[in-house]
Amino acid sequence: MKTVSIKSRLHRMIVKILLASFGCTLITWVALLFIGEDKTYYANHYEKMIPSIEEQVKHEKDGLMKESGKESLEEIIPKEGFKYKVVNEKGVYQYGNLPDESDMTSERLLDSLNLVENGPGDYYEKYIPILSEGGSLQGVLLLYYTLKVTPINESEALLVKTITILFLLAPFIYVILFTIVFVKRLNLQLKKPLGQLMEATSSIRNRNLQFSFDYSGNITEVKELTVAFEQMRDELSDSLQREWDLQKQRKEAIAALAHDIRTPLTIIHGHVEGLEEAHKRGIDRFERYIPVIKKNMASAVKLVHDLNETAILENDSFVVDKVAIDPIEFFTEKMGDYELLCTKEEVQFTGNIEDERKEKDEIYADPYRLTQVFDNLISNSLRFVDKGEILFEVKLTEEKLMIKIADDGPGFSAGQITKLFEAFYQGARRKGHAGLGLHISKSIIEKHGGSIEAKNGGKGGAMMIISLPI
């Protein structure tokens, strides 16, 4: 269905209102004229009688100036619709059915002869000369008449007045009437979709996203609004579902983390009680129990430390403390530390630094946070490499710093790679492992404006690739 904008719809509605009002007004006028045809005189009814009155005045001549001429004049002039008075050539009142309000000057009479002027009230006045047999001016007949619709019978005056009012007001009445009709029609077309939107808003407020829109109208803006609202509902539903899934995962991870913390604490508690009991019996278990206590204390501290680091890094206000460092010196030192650590675990370590820059300048980074990242990645590799090999490669170009850390362990499964950097993800759980190391590493790299990617190496094993802008 082709849609129409509200602006175009309003334009069309106005045209329809005007056309409908014009047509109905014409019909009404014809009907009123038909009804009032035998009940009213037209506005010019009395004006059309004036020529015959003028002819009779010419015929009577100056006989109308005598007192006896009054009867003849009143036979000529109809009683309804007219008033008159007769004055002599000097403007002196002679007689008539209008009172003599003031005399008129002869100059005024001469200037107004055969003219029509506005008279008193709603009357118009016509100056008709009264001439003698010789053609000299003897006086003037001032004839007063109306130009309005009048009833033929006085008893029908109310009907005539009503017809006149309706005749004048018909266009306005129809414009108002059709405006109400068309606006009501538009309101009905808008009421359903707007009502659905209001219900949808209420549903969202009540955390209910199980609703849909059924709009079959052709108003462009309303259709676009309902489509946009539906899309927003889908996106909001997906977002809430992800939030609910995340909350569920966090609850499960926190439960697992509580278990991980409880395990070393339980061991510590048991060995402390063992030391107390041995002390009472005079048995020396110090050298045997203290290393176990220290090891489990370190595990518990690391778990709490990782949680604290996660909270700090996820804060929007956190920024890394970048300083100028010599990358060759920094990575050479790191590789030396990791080589000693790998040797202790009977794992082969291979480090390599490649600098393709023309100018060997310092770079800006946070060495403490980068060390956290590399420590996490090397620790993960050591966790899964059994007397195998770990590779640490660094490459510097004019634009970026690339770091690759790889091992020949079991690598990642397809499902693991997509979740590795999520907080609390524990793809291969071990006691004391909270699943926060890679999440913390990703946060630190992103705070540097870089990226980190996990994949499986060509010969198997896990591979982490870090890219940082210089």
How would you portray this structure in words?
The chain is an alpha+beta fold and 470 residues long. The chain folds into four domains: 6-41 and 154-196, no CATH class; 60-148, 2-Layer Sandwich (Beta-Lactamase); 219-318, Helix Hairpins (Orthogonal Bundle), CATH 1.10.287; 323-469, Histidine kinase-like ATPase, C-terminal domain (Heat Shock Protein 90, 2-Layer Sandwich). It has eleven helices and 14 strands. The strands form four sheets. A five-stranded antiparallel β-sheet has the order 3-2-6-5-4, with helices on one face. The longest helix has 62 residues, at 220-281. It is rod-shaped. 20% of the residues are buried. The model has no long low-confidence stretch (mean pLDDT 79).
Task: Jot down its keywords.
470 residues; alpha+beta; Beta-Lactamase; Helix Hairpins; 4 domains; five-stranded antiparallel beta sheet; five-stranded mixed beta sheet; 11 helices; rod-shaped
Per CATH, which architecture of the largest domain? 2-Layer Sandwich
Number of strands: 14
Remind me, CATH topology of the largest domain?
Heat Shock Protein 90
In CATH, the homologous superfamily of the largest domain goes by the name Histidine kinase-like ATPase, C-terminal domain
Number of domains: 4
- CATH class wording of the largest domain: Alpha Beta
Helix content: 40-55%
